[in-house]
Fold each of these.
Amino acid sequence: MKKKILIMGIETSCDETAVSIIEDNGRKPPKILANIISSQVEVHKKFGGVVPELAARSHLEKIEMITKKALKISKIKLKDLDAISATAGPGLIVCLSVGFNFAKALCIALKKPLIAVNHLEGHALSPMFEKNLDYPYLLLLISGGHTQFLIVKGLGKYKRIGTTIDDALGEAFDKTAKMLGFGFPGGPKIEKYSKKGNPNKFNLPKPIINKGGCNLSFAGLKTAVLRSKILLKTKKDKYDLAASFQATVLKIIYKKTKIAIRDFRKVAKSKSLVVAGGVAANKEIRKIINKLCNEENFNPFFPAEKLCSDNAAMIAMAGLKKFKKKKFDKLNFSIRPRWPLDENAKFLKGSGVKL
Ligand code: KG4
Ligand code: ZN
């Protein structure tokens, strides 16, 4: 194998069209040559959430232009690439099809290997641009669609030890922001306005805080925000509710991560905790994780802030790791709108769930 490896990553699972090119030349960590992200926030803003058909159309319109831009910035020719990796799931079926079929077409035309990437594995490996981590490590994945604790045993080897039984954390941030009229996407807005509010003003519930191990629940918290809305009279009240929501989330994350660390310790000697996904960009969450890790003698790892939310560099990273293990995919690989990292994990959602 030649020394320098060049991998393209393509991401279109939801509302970001993204293409990245990364280079690995034995130096650690790999270098990001280009990381182009075209956000569709403006397209979906007026609907308060992502509209799949509009998202897919926007991916179609932009994918070629963004790919050309990534090649230009990185000064790489298509023929120089060693492999093309693209998100094949989980995500919106119409959106995944755009990026993954585009990758397939490139691979056929260029006779390059195709690598199908699990978007969540991309998040899981995203801190590896900072530092190459040894397996196993504990992962707290907090994004718009997922909230899980997983033991990362190796590439493609995951054991879920905890999950949300209802809403994902990012979803709770987005819905709270929407109820408060802060707009979409809500996470960064809640973080911003929380700074102006009193976190102790509203006493909000922490569902399943004392049961269910490191499983989590956010639906009751969201409903409590909705109920508290009638008490809001001034702008300051809104900031207080945002701050109280975020403070409650911090308490839940602190307690549940503490339990996850204890559970992880029973089966592994490692002291590494990775926190990844869009919500990992939240500075207050980073602070509380740092505090907990300090108390537990654990080492926290976060991706760079710009690599927390959806991007193609993390997809290229997963592609690179698979390339090194010669894990290529056939050109008839079908996208997987549902693709859990731990295929054996029990479905734990909805009322009547036994924890
Ligand atoms: O990982 P991501 O970009 O997309 C998914 O794979 O879901 O995560 C997006 C989620 C959104 O819900 C967004 O509101 C949330 O991450 N988010 C944040 C922050 N930045 C993004 N949540 C809280 N605080 C933030 N600063
Ligand atoms: Zn994501």
Amino acid sequence: MGRVTGEIEAPRAIVAGSIGILGGTFDPIHVGHLAIAEEVREALGLARVLFVPAPRPPHKPGVPLAPAEDRAAMVRLAIRGNPAFEASPVELDRPGPSFAADTVEVLAAHERAEGREPDLTFILSTEALAGLETWHDPERLLDACRLAVVPRAGRGAEGPGWLSERFPRARAVFLDGPDLAVSGTAIRRRVALGRSIRYLVPDAVIAYIADHGLYTEAALSSTASPRRIARS
Ligand code: ATP
């Protein structure tokens, strides 16, 4: 277990072949996601960060979500221009629930097939970490990768002690920042109310949301609009 403090230091040298994985619903992707990916990438010297949209997140059963193809399209728009960021279709291509343990194993197998020893870091917030015991086969996930845990404004205070008590074999790094109080829930609510989401979401994603009529009051409340709101 390690801790990276919020002191501003020079970036770590890039570790060839190292990969960060940020899974999520990205409904929509926002600056909170982008900032944690960039922070972990620099702090750990990751060569790449994969953004992995989940079509059917197991921890959000029955929650209405924008269609997976719209969420994935917004991810691609948001990361355009950062050569270290990539969108991964690994969960979109797989039927059934999107379990992180399966995703990481698929990515590890891909690395081995390419002749590389997998060097995988799964990025998640303290809020997500607090639910780790309820995840599908967390031990299998923890065997296949290390964790990079970032704070999430006021949600979940679980730290290295909490993790090692429950999962002694876990390899993890805890970061102090960035701590941006942005959420997909708040973005959707703002759009529905006609409020601005400028500077909370990349401009290209704002344009996509407007062009596709996502998150309007009608889209959020309508179950008769399956094209725009799919159920997981
Ligand atoms: P929603 O509000 O719809 O539940 P969300 O903003 O939490 O969405 P997800 O796609 O579910 O977004 O999040 C993916 C991962 O990114 C999770 O580990 C989540 O905790 C983390 N995350 C999202 N926003 C932030 C943020 N502002 N700061 C730190 N971590 C974040």
